[in-house]
Amino acid sequence: MDQTGTTDESRTGSGADAWDWLRDAACVGADPELFFPVGDSDPAAEQTERAKAVCHSCPVESRCLEWALDTGRTSGVWGGTDEEERRRLRRNERRRVPAPRGRQASGPGRARRPRTH
After folding, report:
1. Spatial separation of the C-alpha atoms in residues 51 and 76, rounded to whole Å
2. How many angstroms separate the CA atoms of 22 and 46, rounded?
3. How many CB atoms lie within 10 A of CB 5?
4. At what angle do helices 83-96 and 61-71 cross, to 10 degrees?
5. Which residues have C-beta within 8 Å of that of residue 34, sequence separation ≥ 6?
6. DSSP letters along 67-80, please?
7. What angle do CA 19, 2, 47 make, to 5 degrees?
8. pLDDT interval class at 106 (50, 70, 90)
9. Tens digit of pLDDT for each residue in 67-77?
10. 96 pLDDT band (50/70/90 cuts)?
11. Predicted TM-score of the model (pTM)
């Protein structure tokens, strides 16, 4: 397992080309520690902003963010986002997913089906 919390097996995905986008990442030559600030102090916040600046200059920033969301990365800076930003994105995405057909939840503003005996 490496600094990112991934193993060699998880990097391969469904094929070797699953990680092709990483070759173009702006962070490839950067110190990995930059992307994993510790704590909420001013120095950690500054480190997070420096990491995000690298991400914002990256040609694969959106692909990295997509990967981080798909794989559930909960720590570090990925695709220009920190942990809280990704948590908010996941929460907002869950809210947009419609309920499966035939299984709509009842609640305020929703009519309940009458009970039959």
Report:
1. 9
2. 25
3. 14
4. 70
5. 27, 47, 50, 51, 54
6. HHHHHT--SS-BTT
7. 95
8. very low
9. 999 999 999 99
10. confident
11. 0.67
